[in-house]
């Protein structure tokens, strides 16, 4: 940061090529230090100058940084535009920024509950990261894909993916990635009912939100509320809007479970007000039945009726879908069994590989892979990859 500022101070105003690089580097440094306002200013200057001199590389790198900042400010639609702009500028070039743009879009699509698009972008991100040997990108993408597996009920698959990511972090000494891996592992352990292991992991890596989740799983709402209230104050002082919203949502759930329902409903109303402009969905839905009860109470008070109605309708749809799936006997044989090649393709689909990756691994034309996909979907009587994976697991094919 110091050297970048010195460069910008001494460089001639017309020396845009070097000033552009210095401004971008200052943005990166400020972002890593958590000074998001200064980072935004630096990235904006870098983009302005790089466009003036036609430096596409700096434009791409500064735009991906700006997209990250927009996402952390809960301006999801603006972040979406930035990430798509990066892909447009990069074209077919396999760049770290391209991986990051796909991963950013995957997170946004997930939050907007577009699971198929989230899976597609997540797979493209990990594919590109592997192609250019970007280990950090591979880890980040695998953590996201593990989160998707968890949502779809594949707890064992999520745990295996995260164990692999954790091993990569240690092997390559990428300690900055460990907190996000550990946070995802805590969620997985809680799904497995392993509260002691989850508590140890949250404590080891000093993850306050994860600690609060462990306390809630243990029924200790008082401890959860103490952690969350302190964290919310700290985040408010920093101006970190994304983390503050996460804490508000979890704090509202904890208050409601603690029996302080009026305060919980008011806080949920504040969280909904902050979340609605960005179209947030999963931040609420992922909390499960405690959130259903809280939103139902909020609806009685006339808070955000359209928004709450949409969220409750989604809860109901997911519950119905879960019941429909559970009603299907897992042992029912297929009318027409999958061929050996189709089973190979299905296995790779379940591992998160894209159609292009499958074609390369199996030495098949891309059109042939797409044809196998259609046959698999038809035989399993599904429409999407995620449904195919779920159905195949019911039938014992995976």
Beta-strand fraction estimate? under 5%
Return Rg in Å.
23 Å
Number of helices: 22
The strand count comes to 0
Backbone shape: globular
Low-confidence stretches: 325-331
Largest sheet: none
**Structural class of the helix and strand makeup?**
mainly alpha
Helix content percent band: over 70%
How far do the termini sit from each other? 51 Å
Mean pLDDT across residues: 90
SSE order, as H and E?
HHHHHHHHHHHHHHHHHHHHHH
Characteristics:
22 helices; globular; mainly alpha; 398 residues; single chain
Question: Which secondary structure elements does this structure contain, and how are they paired or packed?
Answer:
Blueprint: H1 2-10, H2 16-33, H3 36-53, H4 56-72, H5 76-90, H6 96-111, H7 115-131, H8 135-151, H9 155-172, H10 178-191, H11 195-204, H12 208-217, H13 221-238, H14 241-258, H15 261-275, H16 282-285, H17 289-300, H18 305-326, H19 340-350, H20 355-362, H21 366-380, H22 385-394
Helix pairs in contact: 1-2, 2-3, 2-4, 3-4, 4-5, 4-6, 5-6, 6-7, 6-8, 7-8, 8-9, 8-10, 9-10, 10-11, 10-12, 11-12, 12-13, 13-14, 14-15, 15-17, 17-18, 19-21, 20-21
């Amino acid at each position: 940061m110091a050297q970048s500022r010195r460069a910008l101070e001494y460089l001639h105003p017309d020396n845009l090529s070097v000033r552009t690089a210095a401004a971008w580097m200052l943005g990166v440094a400020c972002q890593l230090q958590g000074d998001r306002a200064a980072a935004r200013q630096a990235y904006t200057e870098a983009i302005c100058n790089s466009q003036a001199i036609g430096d596409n590389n700096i434009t791409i790198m500064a735009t991906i940084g700006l997209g990250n900042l927009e996402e952390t400010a809960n301006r999801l639609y603006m972040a979406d535009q930035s990430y798509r702009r990066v892909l447009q500028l990069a074209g077919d070039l396999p760049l770290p920024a391209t991986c990051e743009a796909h991963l950013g879009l995957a997170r946004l699509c997930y939050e907007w509950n577009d699971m198929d698009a989230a899976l597609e972008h997540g797979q493209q991100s990990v594919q590109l990261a592997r192609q250019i040997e970007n280990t950090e990108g591979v880890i980040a993408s695998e953590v996201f894909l593990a989160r998707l597996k968890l949502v779809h009920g594949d707890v064992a698959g999520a745990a295996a993916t995260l164990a692999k990511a954790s091993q990569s972090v240690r092997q390559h000494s990428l300690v900055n990635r460990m907190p996000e891996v550990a946070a995802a592992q805590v969620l997985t352990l809680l799904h497995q009912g392993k509260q002691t292991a989850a508590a140890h992991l949250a404590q080891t890596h000093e993850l306050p939100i994860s600690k609060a989740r462990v306390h809630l799983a243990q029924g200790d709402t008082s401890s959860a509320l103490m952690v969350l209230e302190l964290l919310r104050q700290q985040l408010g002082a920093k101006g970190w809007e994304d983390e503050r919203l996460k804490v508000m949502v979890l704090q509202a759930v904890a208050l409601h479970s603690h029996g302080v329902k009026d305060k919980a409903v008011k806080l949920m109303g504040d969280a909904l007000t902050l979340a609605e402009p960005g179209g947030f969905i999963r931040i609420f839905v992922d909390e499960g039945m405690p959130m259903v009860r809280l939103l139902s109470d909020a609806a009685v008070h006339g808070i955000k009726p359209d928004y709450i109605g949409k969220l409750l309708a989604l809860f109901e749809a997911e519950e119905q879908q879960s019941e429909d799936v559970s009603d299907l006997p897992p042992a029912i044989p297929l009318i027409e069994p999958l061929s050996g090649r189709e089973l190979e393709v299905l296995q790779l689909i379940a591992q998160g590989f894209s159609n292009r990756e499958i074609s390369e691994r199996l030495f098949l034309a891309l059109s042939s892979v797409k044809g196998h996909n259609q046959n698999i979907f038809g035989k399993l009587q599904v429409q999407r990859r995620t449904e195919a994976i779920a159905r195949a697991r019911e039938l014992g094919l995976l």
